[in-house]
Amino acid sequence: MSVQPDAFAAVDREYQASNEEMERLNASLETLGKEHRRVEGELSDQQELLKKYQGQLMQVKNQQQYAAAWKEIDAARKHVKELEESALKTMTEIDGIQSQLDERKSTFDDLKSRHDEAHAEWQSSLGGLRAEAKALRKKADQLEAALPDEARREFQRTFKQRGGIAVAKVINESCTSCRTRIRPALSQRLRRGEMVICEGCHRILYQERVSS
Predict the structure, then answer these.
(1) CA distance 92 to 89
(2) How many CB atoms are closer than 10 A to CB 22?
(3) For position 127, which CATH number holds?
(4) How many CB atoms neighbour CB 11 within 10 A?
(5) pTM beyond 0.85
(6) Could you tell me the residue range of the domain that residue 37 belongs to?
(7) Residue 147, SS3?
(8) What is the number of domains present in the chain?
């Protein structure tokens, strides 16, 4: 996986955050919309029920029936009022979220344009890096193929076991990978061009020859 450059990473974070926020707002709108439709449907049913009770009020024949009819009417009116308040609250929330979403959308096109431009520049730069990496890989394969069989097998084994880093440089008689001090006998072998394994990190050691 290629590492994103800082310039693209910054605009990408902003772009992804804006995308996620709009998705969250749209999801909230959908949820509130469903709730609003449910409340509106129930409100319509309750309003019809209230009309029915009010119609029945005209047909009562005694005080007991009259009191019972008014009790049902009061309960229906109370329920209608609660549903109307719930519908109003939901619509207010929907308007607020829609306003936030519209504000996000007003700047999103510019943000997407900057994101696409930065992404295109990054991808373009990768072309040169890929070519360079391919050339280095070819050179590494050539060097590895030129190694004696024993050295090549040791390199491949160490490469797998040590996280893709098979060799370590020696500076001032110490391994630069693990800081282990190289014993004099091993230093002598290293100077003679023999393969030497670090006693600390078990990587293959090398040191640059000092030109005379």
Answers:
(1) 5
(2) 15
(3) 1.10.287.1490
(4) 19
(5) no
(6) 6-143
(7) coil
(8) 2
